[in-house]
Design a protein that fits this description.
InterPro entries: CheY-like_superfamily, Sig_transdc_resp-reg_receiver. Keywords: Phosphoprotein, Two-component regulatory system. This protein has 125 residues and is of the alpha/beta class. It has one domain: Response regulator (Rossmann fold, 3-Layer(aba) Sandwich), CATH 3.40.50.2300. Helix content is 38%, strand content 26%. It is built from five helices and five strands. It has a five-stranded parallel β-sheet with strand order 2-1-3-4-5, with helices on both faces. Helix 1 links the parallel strand 1 and strand 2.
Length: 125
């Protein structure tokens, strides 16, 4: 399965966060699929491999750290850029996220500039 270089998944249990991140990503030229839980996103990942995944850390069904571990356990998904999408702004949290397989950390509330820095443009992926 090849990576869809202009596709990003957003996984967050908060509808407003999904809408804001989706709108900003679309402004940057991304195609977007949204998920309100990690299990649904992981199921979709079986069929479609996005270039990047914004993954909320605190979700009720499966947290972002567990979902990232599932992604990193599959060698065919190693090229997917996984970004921790969180309100946890402590530097030790960010260090832990990166040590556990996340490529970047995006702190909520997001801005176009912070999203651009975390994601890059689709043609750069």
């Amino acid at each position: 399965m090849s990576i869809s270089s202009h596709l990003a998944f957003i996984t967050d249990d908060n509808e407003i966060n999904l809408k804001v991140a989706g709108a900003l990503l679309k402004r940057l030229g991304w195609s977007v699929e949204t998920f309100d839980n990690a299990r649904a996103m992981l199921q979709r990942l079986e069929d479609v491999q996005p270039a990047s995944i914004l993954l909320d850390i605190s979700m009720p069904d499966m947290g972002g750290e567990s979902a990232c571990a599932h992604i990193r356990a599959r060698s065919e998904w190693n090229a997917v850029r996984v970004i921790a999408y969180t309100a946890h702004a402590m530097s030790e949290d960010a260090d832990r996220f990166r040590a556990n397989g996340f490529n970047a950390v995006l702190i909520k509330p997001i801005t176009l500039a912070s999203l651009t820095q975390a994601m890059g443009r689709p043609e750069q992926c």
